[in-house]
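In the current project phase, the collection of sequences with tokenised folds has grown. One resulting record follows, to show the layout:
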Amino acid sequence: MTGQALTPLVPLIEKLGFTVEFIDRNIIAREGPVTVSEIAMLWQGMPNKHDRKRTRQLLDALTEAGLLKVVDDESGVFARVGG
């Protein structure tokens, strides 16, 4: 189901430099909340402000697609919908 839900986002995912596999493994399949900083670190190791900005864009897109919900907008905390 997640793969199908991500299909419309693939162009954006690729533009931002992520992969569907990374998103499935590190965001969608995770229990509990995820943060922009945490995902950026998993993705880039030592993320710069541009990496964090792209990570936020990804998490916002996943929220718009109904896969995530915002827990704390200011801190960049998100959680799976239904999780």
About this structure: The longest helix spans residues 49-64.
